[in-house]
């Protein structure tokens, strides 16, 4: 792990006594079993009552919490979720219109999972099926304008994307629009907030993996898989954000792995600043119609340096719409951005969905899309030093265990046996930008972000393409 993590000894937290066991009580943590001496270690406490007379609530290791209603971490208060805890949302929703259950963070949230025992946000085990990958069974985590800090470490978030409807907290609070939006897995909306999302898995959701509308952030060393049904991205950044996105694997986002925009800039929401490097993006864009999608999209005055990324079997190269009108917040990206030194690899297979006709590209192969005459390719500026596959030179990156010619371009079911490290001799091991380049400095590589008293720094820039070397 490429993070400096300094030990912090804080005040003791008040831990509630509840553990994994069966319970019929709705929206309550599980009732603790009796200990060997026959004494109860503590009474079950309802979720609504946990916040009485305390500013900090701890959900202990291996706890199972069943949510049958929306859950709120109150403003000014802190929820700590320990390793192995499971938060299981009911797919039945809330109320007469079955509003998808939302996990709202108005205070602070610290998910402290481990590699051996990740924290899990999901639905019931029998609902975790391939058929439900894009079913949008619950709402996801919404960090509001008052959320000060959030740590998501070694955490799995899945089966999100429920539709925002009348009565959804996000609609009532003005975060999303009822009838128009679906819940991402994580939303941030405080321009003064601090968010560290690391070592986690965000998969199987109707909408975006992360929709960042504000705050300083580190998004690193995560796996994104099957994000977006008929649109959406793995990471979607708007105005009011300053974020490093590094070391992530993004498999089969519907549209892009990275959508980097300063949309919404004005007032107190300043220009979006992004460093996106050493990410591996695979199979992006093929499930999206039109000429959108394909790996990276930078627009609306975002200042984004996008480099040392490995794009494999994506539909298009990095796109920068209206690049001929730089520095116009309503149009092009900030022309001080560097979107270059990336590696575009292609397999030899044809997509089983080819959008052809008016306003469609007809692109059927990744190499074809990389060399397509796209109006949003800023030729000679963006990717001028990048490695780009062609029909007779597909640039196989030689993964340890992923056959770029065998997995369908429209496939979205992730195989945990895949290994995206590079074999010795891989062409993606050499030629990437060095850390000494003026554009290649992480925003939080030195000062880091302090969350719950611990300092987290962004991964160092690696001189290979993609998330992993050998």
UniProtKB/TrEMBL annotation:
<keyword id="KW-0732">Signal</keyword>
<feature type="signal peptide">
    <location>
        <begin position="1"/>
        <end position="20"/>
    </location>
</feature>
<protein>
    <recommendedName>
        <fullName>Right-handed parallel beta-helix repeat-containing protein</fullName>
    </recommendedName>
</protein>
<feature type="region of interest" description="Disordered">
    <location>
        <begin position="24"/>
        <end position="48"/>
    </location>
</feature>
<dbReference type="InterPro" id="IPR011050">
    <property type="entry name" value="Pectin_lyase_fold/virulence"/>
</dbReference>
């Amino acid at each position: 792990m490429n993070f400096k993590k300094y030990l912090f000894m804080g005040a003791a937290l008040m831990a509630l006594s509840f553990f994994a066991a069966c319970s019929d009580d709705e929206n309550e943590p599980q009732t603790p079993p009796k200990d060997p001496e026959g004494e109860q270690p503590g009474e079950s406490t309802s979720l609504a009552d946990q916040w009485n007379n305390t500013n900090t609530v701890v959900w202990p290791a291996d706890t199972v919490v069943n949510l049958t209603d929306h859950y709120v971490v109150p403003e000014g208060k802190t929820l700590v979720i320990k390793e192995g805890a499971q938060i299981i949302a009911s797919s039945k929703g809330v109320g007469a219109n079955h509003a998808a259950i939302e996990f709202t963070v108005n205070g602070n949230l610290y998910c402290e999972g481990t590699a051996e025992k990740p924290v899990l946000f999901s639905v019931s085990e029998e609902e975790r099926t391939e058929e439900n990958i894009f079913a949008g069974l619950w709402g996801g985590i919404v960090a509001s304008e008052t959320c000060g800090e959030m740590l998501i470490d070694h955490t799995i978030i899945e089966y999100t994307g429920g539709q925002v409807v009348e009565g959804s907290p996000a609609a009532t609070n003005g975060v999303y629009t009822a009838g128009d939006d679906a819940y991402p897995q994580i939303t941030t909306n405080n321009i003064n907030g601090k968010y560290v999302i690391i070592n986690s898995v965000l998969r199987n959701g109707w909408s975006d993996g992360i929709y960042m509308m504000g705050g300083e952030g580190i998004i690193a060393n995560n796996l994104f898989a099957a994000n977006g049904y008929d649109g959406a991205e793995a990471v979607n950044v708007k105005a009011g954000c300053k974020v490093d996105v590094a070391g992530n694997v993004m498999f089969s986002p519907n549209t892009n792995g990275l959508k980097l925009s300063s949309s919404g800039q004005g007032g107190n929401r300043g220009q979006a600043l992004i460093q996106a490097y050493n990410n591996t993006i695979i199979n992006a864009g093929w499930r999206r119609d039109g000429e959108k999608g394909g790996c990276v999209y930078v627009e609306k005055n975002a200042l984004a340096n996008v480099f040392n990324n490995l794009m494999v079997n994506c539909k298009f190269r990095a796109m920068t719409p209206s690049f001929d009108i730089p520095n116009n917040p309503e149009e092009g990206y900030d022309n001080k951005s560097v979107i270059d030194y990336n590696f575009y690899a292609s397999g030899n297979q044809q997509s089983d969905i080819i959008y052809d006709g008016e306003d469609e590209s007809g692109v059927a192969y990744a190499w074809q899309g990389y060399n397509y005459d796209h109006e949003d390719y800023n030729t000679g500026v963006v990717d001028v030093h990048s490695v780009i596959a062609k029909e007779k030179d597909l640039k196989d990156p030689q993964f340890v265990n992923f056959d770029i010619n065998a997995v369908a371009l429209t496939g979205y079911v992730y195989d945990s046996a895949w290994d995206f490290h590079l074999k010795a001799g891989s062409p993606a091991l050499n030629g990437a930008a060095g850390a000494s380049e003026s554009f290649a400095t992480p925003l939080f590589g030195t000062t880091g972000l302090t969350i719950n008293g611990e300092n987290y720094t962004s991964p160092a820039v690696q001189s290979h393409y993609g998330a992993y070397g050998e």
